[in-house]
């Protein structure tokens, strides 16, 4: 089994990684960190390249590089971390990856919002919470 931590494309420290790392250490599981390049962003990158096709493989490679950058910015603890990159619908890809790695937990991040918005998670986090077959740990930015 594995702990799956999902990170966004900010390439900054992400609490989902550190919480995922804590869970992986506590349960003796592998930590897998994934970034999903949204389909819309993939299509924009393809348009910008003009002449050369921006393939799904290119998108997966770029998404995995983002995951690696976030991991490096988030932790300095030694320990194996597997990074993955996916392209497509973020919720669908996260849930598929959780199934592929046989995730014990799926760790996702959230952002603080206005007082009214604090009662609700972001739409991606909310969709994952409602659709996941595995327990979801939602962490908020500090």
From TrEMBL:
Pfam families: Usp (PF00582). Residues 58-83 are annotated as: Disordered. It comes from the Archaea. Coiled coil: none annotated. This is Universal stress protein. Residues 3-139 form the UspA domain. The lineage of its organism: Archaea, Methanobacteriati, Methanobacteriota, Stenosarchaea group, Halobacteria. Belongs to the universal stress protein A family. It comes from Halopelagius longus.
């Amino acid at each position: 089994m594995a702990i799956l931590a999902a990170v966004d494309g900010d390439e900054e420290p992400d609490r989902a990684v550190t919480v995922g790392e804590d869970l992986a250490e506590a349960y003796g599981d592998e930590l897998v960190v994934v970034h999903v390049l949204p389909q819309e962003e993939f299509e924009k990158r393809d348009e910008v390249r003009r002449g050369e096709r921006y393939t799904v493989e290119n998108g997966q490679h770029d998404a995995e590089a983002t995951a690696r950058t976030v991991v490096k910015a988030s932790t300095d603890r030694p320990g194996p971390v597997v990074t993955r990159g996916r392209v497509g619908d973020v919720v669908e890809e996260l849930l598929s990856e959780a199934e592929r790695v046989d995730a014990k937990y799926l760790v996702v991040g959230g952002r603080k919002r206005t007082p009214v918005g604090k009662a609700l998670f972001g739409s991606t986090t909310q969709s994952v919470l409602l659709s996941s077959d595995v327990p979801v740990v939602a962490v908020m930015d500090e």
